[in-house]
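Bench log, entry 3. Co-assembly request; chain sequences pasted below exactly as received.
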Amino acid sequence: MTAKKILILFAHPSQARSEVNLPLFNASRMNYVTCVDLYAEYPTFRIDIDKEQKRLLAHDVIIFMFPMYWYSTPAILKEWQDLVLEHGFAYGHEGNALQGKQFLCAISTGGPKKAYQCDGSNHYTIQELLQPLEQTALLCGMDYLPPYVLFGARTALEEKRLASHLTHWQDILTKLINSEFAGIQFSKQDLLSHPECKQVKK
Amino acid sequence: MTGYFLQAFIYLAAAVIMVPLAKRLGLGSVLGYLIAGVMIGPVFGLVGSETTTIQHFAEFGVVMMLFLVGMELEPKVLWDMRNRLIGLGGLQVGLTVGVITGLALAFSLPFGVSLTISLIFALSSTAIVLQTFSEKSLNKTDGARNAFSVLLFQDIAVIPMLAFIPMLAIPELVEQSKALAGTVEQHENYSLVAHLPGWAYGLVVIAAIAFVVVGGHFLSRPLFRYIAASGLREMFTTTALLLVIGIAALMSLVGLSPALGTFLAGVVLANSEFRHELESNIEPFKGLLLGLFFITVGAGINFAILSDNALVIAAITLGLMSIKAMVLYGLARVFNISGSDRWLFALSLAQAGEFGFVLLSFAHQQHVLPTELVQLLSLPVALSMFLTPGLFILFEKVILPRFAENENEQQADEIDEQGSVIIAGSGRFGQIVNRLLVSNDVTTTVLDYQASRIELMRSINVKSYFGDATQPDLLHTAGIENASLLVIAIDQPERALDLVHHVKMTYPKVKILARAFDRGQGYELEKAGADYVISETFHSALEMGKQALVDMGMHSFQAHQQGHVFLETEAKHKNDLYHAWMKSQEDEGHVSHVRELFMNLESALKEEMDKDRAGAHAKGERGWTPRPKNYSQD
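Structure output for the full assembly:
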């Protein structure tokens, strides 16, 4: 079986202050993984549509890596979707370029996990809040995988939760490359970062 | 006249042959000069007794060197090292004098003679040590800094020594010379202070120093500005020489050390905007004279006396060097100079110095030392200087590697220091680049050839220096070796081009960002090797074009997008145009081809901007196009 190629689209506008996302991005540099720093490549937001579409075609797994900003992506990642996922390419008539690729988000949130539930301060689970991206993936014919989440990211470094988060992530990337998630049916409640998720469910 | 030419030729040829060879063999330039001197002097006998005269002249190189050293030291830095200067320097001279005097007395030499010898031997060679430090880039080490304080103290200590030695005169020698005095005409030295009483002498000395400090601070700027306005480069060199020689003359007139005076002037000028230009003007003279000085030291070694007293001289030389090294090593322990720096400090200063020769001949004149002893003692002084480069090699090859492992952690800090940016030209363009960098804590060195502009920059607290950035010497003194970037924003296109060529050839690691006036110059700069070229009017013109589009009714976001399309289309055609331009430089016939390509660019631009918007692929708007009207999902 051939190794899958992974494309990570990283969006962080203030990297000098990044404690979690930048280390995660840097830990992702391995064989078969293409790491794209969107803010570095397009500081004026002038995204090169042709280049980005070629990148998508050349990879099997698409990952958005970002800190949650107002229950959504940082601005450049939204701009990227608006520009790159064109009719006739990603969706619509003959728009099947992304068909069959896997898609997931690797994100960090400021709030703790218990804030993301119906009786928490954010009222919705992280899975629910990511539904616009889930639906985008589905419309493009992609296979949506559960997100990889670090809750309470502002204190992760102090509480020494970062190191295991990074090694776990590298483990997941290796599994993606080796197609180990193919054909697995995940439930709506699953998180890739959740320990139970390591057990393969058919 | 012919004699002078021949002599100059012999000295220069010896230097040209030996110095690069010594450098290549890893011996350092100082040893090269010394060997060259031995070759033309004692070995082949090409030069003779005139070396002593030349040596006095060449000692002026030391004066110039101290001027340059002073310019590297801001007054604040000098004040900060006052404890080391007096404590370390004073103890070094004091202890060395004590030990050597005791030893000489043990060999039953008279007290006056013993003391004089010890004073002569206590001094080290500023010329060799500082030259070697800078050649081996040891300047910034702790050992070198402490060694420098000691050398500075010694240079100052020479003055009271010159006053003190005559009091030790031996009565019989004075008698002898009085008998001769009638026949030999005494040379009266020029002096302003010879017949003054003590208090008046003190006043004159203070007045002279005050003149150097105050004059250097207040008079030098208007003078240099006036000279710079003349635009004649050689006048600047002349003025710089005038300044150094003037101060040296003043100091000798009042009986102070010229080296000390110029050092002081250097410190005063350390903050001046003309500092780098002054340095690059004086530096070649200093180099030549110091080289000449080292040659004369080598040439002055008297092989006849050496072979007659080989054992005695060897014993004195080794004894002298080991005593000095031990005293220095002990002091380094007390003053907490640690690791390899302690060895550097102890070994670098373990020789006798050029002031030793001065004191020897002075002591001879003043009838303190008999002639035979002076001839004998001048050999250990010269030999110890000869052996010093060897000690530096010992330090580099044997001692430093032993400490290298332990010091790796410490060194990391220094490498962490941010590489600086040199900005050539502080006009309307360079100035903005500089302001952005400085406000982001990037250290910059700004150079400009218009004194008025520098004045303006200094008046708003922007650190900038007067000087022609296209002069290799000035770039060197501005620190191009350690710079990571060079920003070229000077007005003369040919000079900018020369500068790119020179820097790319000599310092390939330095990245060059260059400002071009127009497309042609931009290509030329790129061809010369500039890493990033920007046309000075391009982006502002584009901004204005976008504003014009908005004023004509276009939505400002769309105008912004069209601006991007313009940039991208330009970039896409740039390579073709560049290659066509390169060919047209060689062949006139290609000019029409360039014109043709330019017309292509214009039509491509029009096409990109005009694409049918209904077709949803106008470049400026691509990506926000709504789904087609007939698209249905369900």
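The beta strands of chain A are 6-10, 33-37, 61-67, 102-108, 143-144, 148-150. Residues 6-198 of chain A form a domain with the Rossmann fold fold (CATH 3.40.50.360).
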